[in-house]
Every structure is written in C-alpha cells, then in structure tokens.
Amino acid sequence: MPYNHQSIEAKWQQFWETNQTFRTITDTTKPKYYVLDMFPYPSGAGLHVGHPEGYTATDIVSRYKRMKGFSVLHPMGFDAFGLPTERYAMTTGIHPAKVTADNIVNFTRQLKSIGFGYDWERVINTTTPDYYKWTQWIFLKIYNSWYDETAKKARPISELTIPAEYKTPLEIQEYQDSKRLAYIAEIPVNWCEQLGTVLANEEVDEWTSKGYTVERRPMRQWMLRITAYAERLLNDLALVEWPQSTMEMQKHWIGKSEGAEVRFPLIPTLLPEGEGQDTKTSLEPSPSGRGQGEGITVYTTRPDTIFGVSYIVLAPEHSLVERITTDAQRTAVEDYKRAVALKSDLERTELAKEKSGVWTGAFVLNPANGEKVPVWIADYVLAHYGTGSVMGVPCGDVRDFAFATKFGLPIPIVLKPADGTEWDFTKDGYDDYDNAIAINSKNDNVSLDGMESNKAKKWMTMWLASEGLGKLKVQYKLRDWLFSRQRYWGEPVPILFFEDGTRRSLELDELPLQLPDVSDFQPAGTGESPLAKVESWVNFTDKKTGKKARYETNTMPQWAGSCWYYLRFIDPSNDAVFVDSEQEKYWMGAGDNGGVDLYMGGAEHAVLHLLYSRFWHKVLFDYGYVSTPEPFKKLFHQGLILGEDSVKMSKSRGNVVNPDDVIKEYGADALRVFEMFMGPLEAAKPWATKGVEGVARFLSRSYRMIVDEETGKCSPSVKDAELTKEQAFILHSTIKKIGEDIENLSFNTAVSQMMIFVNEFFKLDVKPRAAMEAFVLCLAPFAPHLGEELWQILGHTESVATVAFPQFDASKLVQDEIEIVLQVSSKVRAKIIVPANADAATLEKIALQDPTVQKYLDGKTPKKVIAVPGKLVNFIV
C-alpha cells in the first residue's frame, strides 16, 4: 500500500502515548543529557510553522542521544502568566485561568501532532499554584538576603549586622531594606493608563504600536538588586558555550566601565545680565572652596577631559531638578518634563535624532578650573542609569558636540590628535581617544598637557581623589530589575504589610499565596492592580501576629516563572522542595561546567531572560540549593522562519502558515524534515510550500525503497546480502555524517546525506538489509513516525526510539577507487574510475587514454592541463 502519512502518524503517536515511550528515567549508571526548549507562551493563535523549528532540532538531538545510550530529559511546559491573557480577560470578562487552560490544550494538541518526544508527565504551567508556590519561595529567599561583598555571595538578612543607631522595628527594617536583594523603591516607570499597568521597556513598542499611550511617572515598585551580581554575571560567561553574539550582548548590557566619580559643587545662580531681576535657587550658596558644599555627582570614563566641561546635564527626573530650578526657568522646565514623561527610554536614547533640553537656571563649579558651568536637563540622560547626570565635553564627544552646537554652548578645546592630524573642532567632536593627547588642561596643582589619554585619566583621577573632589569608580550599565506589575494575572508577591509600616514575609507553610478568584479584571484606577479592589486581600487580620494587614497588590512580572523552570522540570511533582538535590546534581551535572546540556530558543531572549535566570540561579547557588554556578551550559539560537514573502510571520500581514494545514496535506515528518533542510539552523529562511512537497516526495521514496506498495510488507528486494565496497562506503559515510551533523546541529546537511543514500540504494535490484536497517535508524530522529513504521515492517517489535544508533566502520570509509570528471576546455566530457591515491601526473596519463577525451581533443595538443587529485582533469585547447 502507498505511503499514507495520516494513518502512520496517528498510529505511532498513539503508540508513544500508550507506552510512555519518552518517559524520563533517571538512570545514574548512564551518562545524562538534558536538552531544553525555551517554553512557549500559550496564545490563542496557537503555533505557526516558525515555532516548531527549534523544537524539531532539540527533538532530533534528544532522540539521537537516547539511541546513543544517554538518559535523556526533554520536557515541555508553558510560560502562561502575562499581559496578553489579562488584556483578553479585561475585554471579554473570561477568567485568565480558563483562557490559559484552553490555549494549553490547543498547544499540546499541536505539539503532539508533530511527533515531539516530550515527557508529557513533566509538563509545567507557571500559573498553577503548585508551581508558583516555589516561584514565591525563591523570591522570598532573595527578599530575605543581602549581598556580602567580602564573601562575594548572598547571605540571610538575619546575619546582617545592624548599626547601633537603628533601634526601632521601622528603623531596623529601613536599614535592612537598603541592603536586601529585593526591595521597594519609588522610581520612574513606563505607565500605561489604558492597560492600568507598568510596562517593561521591551513591551513599550508593542503596545504603543497598538495605539496605547505610555508615559513616564514615578511609582512604588519592587526591585531586585541584580547589580550586586554584575561582576559575577560578567566573569562567569567564561564557563558557558554560547553564541559569541549573545555573549557580547550580555557583556554590553552589564556594561562594565572604569572611570571617576566627580562632584561639581552647586553655586548661587544669577540670571545673565540684562534678563531681568537676579533670581537665586532655594539652595544656600556653596562655600568658595572647590570641594565644599552641596553638589552634583557625575560619573565619567573620561576624567582627563574635565577641563573641557562646558555644561552639566541632569535627567529630567533627577531629584535635584526641582530644587535647583530658578523661578524664571521653572515653567520651561516643567513643560519639558511633561513632554519627556510621554517618551520611552528607547525614544529618549537610541531613537532620538534631535537633541533637546532646557536650562535649569542653575550653575555648578568645575572643580578642575573653577569655571562656572550651567546645569541643563535633557531627555537623553536617564535617572536610573549611572548617577542620572553627565558632564558635557563638546570637543571630546560627538553627542556633546551636537548638544553644545544646538544651544550655543562653549566648546573648550582640551584634546588634539597625537599623530599631528589637524582636527576642525568647529565641525565635530573628537572621540578617537586612543589617538589623543591633552592640551589646555592644567591648574595650579596639576597639569595633563602633553599626556596621552590613558595616562591622563589615571593622573586626573588621583588628583581628584587627593583633593576630595572625586574617586576611582568601577560602574556597570546594568540596572536593578524592576520586578512588579500592576496586574492580576501574575504571581502574587508573598509579603503582607501592617498598619505601623512594618511588613512580614510569608513562611513556607503559608505558601502558595494564591490569587483570589475574581470576576473584575479592570485596574483599580489608583495605579494599583485589580487586587487592590479585593477586600479580603487588602483588609484582614494576620493569623500569625494578630495585626491588621494587607497583601502586596502588585504581582510579579512574567519573567519570574521562566527564571527557574529548568530546575522544576527535573523534579516537577515534589511538594517538599523545589527540586531534589540528588536529582539536580545528576541532571545539571554538578561542577563549574555543568548546567543544561543544550538550551535552544530565540535570539530575542539573548539578554533579559538569560540574565535574569542566571541571577536567580546564582542566588540559589550561594545557598547550596543548586550545584552549578551557571544554569545553561550550551545555548543555541535558531533562526526565524519567515513568510513566503520573506517577511516575519504575523496575522496582520496575513502571511502566517498554520502547521495543522501542512501536517494534514504533507505529514508531520515532512514538516519536520523540511524545516531542518531549509538551511543552517541559525539562519533566517523564508517558508516555501514547494519545498515541503519535495521533502514529502523524498519520504515517500524512502518508504518505497523498503516497502512493497502492493502488499504493504517488506520489499522482496531487501535481502540479507553482502554490501559491495561502494555500497559500504555510502552507508558508513552516511552514518558518520549524520551522527556528526546532529552533534553539530547541522541538520540541513544531514538531510542532504540521507537523500544521497536513497538516490544510490533506491535503484538497486538487491538492497542489503543491513544497509536498510541502518538507514532507518539514521532517519528516525528526523522523521520518527516513518522511522517507526519502516522499523516494524523490517520485522522488529521494539520502538525504533529505543534502538542503538548505528556505528560507522572507519575502514569502510577508505576508498581504493573514486570517480573523477574529465573536461575539455572546461566542459564535462566524461567520468572515469581511477585509483583513489592517484597523483596529478598519473591522472593526466589515465585521462589522455580515454576515448571520449581523445575525440574532443581531435589530435590537438592541450595548451594547459589542470589535474586536481580526487576531483577532475581539465584539458585546455
């Protein structure tokens, strides 16, 4: 009977489910292999054909490793908290839990229809209380910790020494909060009134493109002190095997730099002469001494250019702006601040094409030369980055030059090219610091003139420190993690607050703190989540203390559940601990080079998800709950599968291809093999339905190579016969290449090799059974349904998934003879068999004796002969 993908695939999917073929067995006598997908968000739209690409790759690897004798853990789950589902609940009134459950059912159906060998007993849903109980527990571990800079690790907050001056519970709590790894702060955030929630920077573009308005406003937020781990997050990248581009993105995001922290003292501010009455700030005049009085602290990696400072810029949200702004400038400053509040961080920095800003009316003193420097505010400076202030050196920075030029600010020249190149500082700033020396940079106590930049930086930093004007500072771009959302559909924060201002974290026996069942998902209208409207949530008596209390009304961000799911997959049903320590040691491979053996997912998670997971993991590592310093040993990003129009798939563009349709028409195996055959796994590739048709034909041909279509039984041409040398070479080359290609994630060339095998063996009247069986074992990880069917037809009763992958014989890969091409004037005229070790001279002699070559030479003597051993001989006439 002909190859019928529908009946074959339904048959084997039922077999795998009934027999639990892919159930994970922890067999410590075997080597382990933990292969993990970045688990999906179960949207109502379901999967499109781009989603299975990475899942297929990891499925091939997991099946291969199982056949190679490994204990394999290959789980699947759902990252199901999040704003899209909550937004749907807000517009429809349908509870997010029901929406999530329905979406998961659909996703599971689709994943099973593609034949993935997941252990479905280990499914994780981040929204179930039995899962987020441990998300809450890990959060509390972070909350009840501080970072000991001496020990370079997290320690319990109970071990933090409290200074004697802190006596009352509130004072002690305040001091502890200043050290905790999880704390509450008032910070500027991206607030969306229509959604009633704070948005992460990465979410702003998505929602503004949908017509929502986002503004910056200060709000009370939970923060995680990830900055305490900045150095370890940077250094431990040496322990992992990740794409270089991802490593660089992480390093850039952490952004370590070395420079100086400099204080510019504030001075009484007078309006320029002729512009009305002199107006002072609310600050007291600073003493005349350079290092005295209140000031603005600036971090700079270029302390050698301090003599060239012509202005200071503060973030519009900086705490000093209100105090230093003069009456005459107050209206302009307030108008500017309101306009900036409507911009995202991205719009204020990378996307900003035009410089904008407003003078506050205030001045500071340049501590290096005593010059009076104006203080401006501008949107390109962010309050939560660095000190929220920058010093403008127009001659030494192209951005500063643009700002100074626009607003007519001075451009002091304090640099010149070291190689003598002439530089026109009236046209642009000079930022080639490796080729610069200082000029016009001296005072009565220090001179940088003539020094190259690196020496001048060190010299100036030492002088600032000696004068009490600054200090050496190592700084990171990394900011603390904003960890709360004003939403209902998220993990509840397990903290309760008392009327006297103190608070208490829940204990393990009180977890999970479950979401209350509500029917109103609209925001409270006060900047709080819908939880603020639940009376039992905000007004109750704490059973452990007898005090009146309220729970935190913010919930955790969607990132929380995905920070540690790889650990729960190891031991998903354990209610006593989040993961058993022995199970963790086995599957994570304890040690500095341990972790998930292969982690695959989109490059869009190259920074935040990976950085956040690494942070949580390191806190757990500090306490001995995990045995490896890093969570993911090897990482790979699959490329996008684009629409047939070569544009990213989206419903709005109408170019989405549903895998259900492809499977119905061509089969799951065709979908799997085609997605691996499209090109290198890491590359972006356009979908092509004709390509699926071609792969379907290849699979049908593979079926017909072994099966008699009239009887549906093994073809009479498959016999117990010895392989010829050429057949053995093709077979063992195939086994070797496919094994190596799977190890290297080079699936497209593995499929090409299988096609070569079928082309060679399909035409044989006698097909050696040993070759057919080895081919089926090579095919099975890629096309598992067809692999199972052919293995059964060949007379076997066990699942092909449990059979050992074939081994190649290196001796069979040595060829005595090979085929080469004969050309005359670069046109192919013949092919001949020659000794495999024949050198160029020998090949030329053999080729000249070929009748076809003699015919085309027609008695002429070649002008040139090109002989390439193992390839060709070309006679140029």
Indicate the percent of residues in helices.
25-40%
Q: Helix count?
A: 28
Which structural class fits the helix and strand makeup? alpha/beta
Low-pLDDT windows of residues: 270-292
What integer is the average pLDDT?
Answer: 92
- Globally, the shape reads globular
Task: Give the N-to-C terminal Cα separation.
Answer: 55 Å
Could you tell me the number of beta strands? 33
- Estimated radius of gyration: 34 Å
For the sheet with most strands, the description reads: 7 strands, mixed
- Strand residues, percent: 15-25%
What does this 3D model show about the protein?
This protein is 34% helix and 17% strand. It has 28 helices and 33 strands. The two termini are 55 Å apart. Residues 270-292 have low confidence and may be disordered.
Summarize the model shown.
Helix content is 34%, strand content 17%.
Secondary structure blueprint with pairings:
Layout: H1 5-19, E1 32-37, H2 52-67, E2 71-73, E3 77-78, H3 83-92, H4 96-113, E4 124-125, H5 129-143, E5 145-148, E6 153-156, H6 169-177, E7 182-192, E8 197-199, H7 201-208, E9 215-224, H8 230-235, H9 244-254, E10 256-267, E11 295-300, E12 311-314, H10 321-324, H11 327-340, H12 345-348, E13 358-365, E14 372-377, E15 389-392, H13 398-407, E16 415-417, E17 436-438, H14 453-466, E18 470-476, E19 481-482, E20 495-498, E21 503-505, H15 535-538, E22 540-541, E23 548-551, H16 559-562, H17 565-568, H18 581-588, E24 598-600, H19 608-622, E25 635-636, E26 641-642, H20 659-666, H21 668-677, E27 685-686, H22 689-706, E28 718-719, H23 725-743, H24 747-762, E29 767-768, H25 769-779, H26 784-793, E30 817-824, E31 827-835, H27 840-848, H28 851-857, E32 864-868, E33 872-876
Parallel strand pairs: 1-2, 1-24, 3-4, 12-14, 24-25, 26-27, 28-29, 30-33
Antiparallel strand pairs: 5-6, 7-8, 7-9, 9-19, 10-11, 10-13, 10-18, 12-15, 13-14, 16-17, 20-21, 20-23, 22-23, 30-31, 32-33
Helix pairs in contact: 1-26, 20-21, 21-22, 22-24, 23-24, 23-25, 25-26
